[in-house]
Amino acid sequence: MSDNLTVLNALDTARTQWYHVTAVIIAGMGFFTDAYDLFCITTITKLLGRLYYYDPAIHAPGKLPHSVNNWVTGVALVGTLTGQLVFGWLGDKLGRKKVYGLTLILMVICALCSGLSFGYSRRVVIGTLCFFRFWLGFGIGGDYPLSATIMSEYANKRSRGAFIAAVFAMQGVGIIFAGLVSMIISKLFLVSFGGKAFSTDEVFSTEPEADYVWRIVLMLGALPALLTYYWRMKMPETGRYTAIIEGNAKQAAIDMGRVLDIEIQAEGEKLAKFKAANEYPLLSNEFFARHGLHLIGTMTTWFLLDIAFYSQNLTQKDIFPTMGLVSNAKSISALREMFETSRAMFVIALFGTFPGYWFAVFFIEKIGRFKIQLMGFFMMSVFMAIIGAKYDYLKTKEHKWTFAALYGLTFFFANFGPNSTTFVLPAELFPTRVRSTCHALSAASGKAGAMVSAFGVQQYTQDGNVHKIKKAMLLLAFTNMIGFCCTFLVTETKGRSLEEISGEDERKNETQMKSTRPHSGHQDDGWD
């Protein structure tokens, strides 16, 4: 087949229109909610320890036991991994739109229920919290493959990467708001009910009203999802899914013509040939011959990236005191500790995390996904190695801002790097029939890496042990270098149609060309 379907060509060559921006906002608000819900837990875990795990016999502020802390911060990631696989598969089987709204409903209900407790004992409170955060994560997981797939299938080929990256960049806004909302709520309660320092009054340094604070912070995560639901339900099914998978090019033309200013003609005979050429399933020799290396590449790089990325975000509450950004726990009250932790998280997110996402949006179509991912992994490795090697020097009071700058740069290059590109590439590399599932497999691999962080790397940072934190940083630097090497398994996708990249238009994709071309000593690694 020498030329593409008209419906697909029209989508690829359509000028950038207002509906493209609307789609970014609708999909992006889901990611805003995802990030807020996943990362606001960082601001409240120390408060939960003070409220429910204070032991008067040891004369120290209450602290979540390691196993409890790991489950409170990690259970949502377990749910996210599960949700990615389930909703990713459903997105290919039932259609993107049919299951898109369900993820939001689940997020709204479980965010609200996360702030409730079915009893007073710490076992019941923590158990209830973990139960609903698992199902909250399940809904969040569905948003990853569906949002990426929908945006990639709506966008034109000139700005597709920037649009997908912009959807993901809303994660940065969500992280900022997780810190900001926690900071505002804790400050309001601190002004009204602020207690004495722990060293002055061990019991009432944990303000009784603080039990409302963590619940309000968690429940507010339902608001953006609720506000987005109506607009998400108004989105039509993507033209690519309707045409290629459902075989209805006429309906695809009607749907896309309703929201985009494009003219499309139905092509029955060409569509039948197009469908016939792309019937192979995920678990087939044909798929692995065409896309096997790319799938291994997207899964390994996202896995390795999330070990580092979630280690940064989930353990920052333990590193902030060492950096001098948060006061010693005994010298402040529970609400004051939450306020200072939230403030530090907000500042790091605003000046380190947030700019990185938008640098990726602005440069992804100029530099390309491949180079940005290589650069990001390499720079993260360098800065984490410096922090690990010079940790004793950096943690001194006079060097705390140098420490904060280096720490912020690891966030910047994570986001102007593999945290953005590992989300974009799986939405582009694979054929329409399995695109959502392949993105889900890649994202789920990432969440497996996040679980390594939550249940493994956190063990090194929770006690503030300098030797263990150094070891963790050097381990993460090494992890990033492996990610740098695994990046060579994927290819550059900028400026090409989805069908050209995946080989759906019956042209050979990059993997097939490498396997059939005579050896010339040159490898197309995406730099050309």
UniProtKB/TrEMBL annotation:
Reaction(s) catalysed by this chain's protein: phosphate(in) + H(+)(in) = phosphate(out) + H(+)(out)
Major facilitator superfamily (MFS) profile domain segment(s): 23-495
Membrane topology classification: Multi-pass membrane protein
Spans traversing the lipid bilayer: 71-90, 99-118, 124-142, 163-192, 212-231, 344-364, 370-389, 401-418, 472-491
Gene Ontology BP term (one): phosphate ion transport
Region Disordered: start-end pairs: 499-528
Keywords: Cell membrane, Membrane, Phosphate transport, Symport, Transmembrane, Transmembrane helix, Transport
SUPFAM superfamilies reported for this sequence: MFS general substrate transporter
CDD domains reported for this sequence: MFS_PhT
Basic and acidic residues composition bias: residue spans: 499-511
GO terms for MF: symporter activity
UniProt keyword Transmembrane, yes or no: yes
Record's keyword annotation contains Isomerase: no
Subcellular location: Cell membrane
Protein origin, superkingdom: Eukaryota
GO-annotated cellular components: plasma membrane
Family classification: Belongs to the major facilitator superfamily. Phosphate:H(+) symporter (TC 2.A.1.9) family.
Protein name: Inorganic phosphate transporter 1-4
Species of provenance: Capsicum baccatum
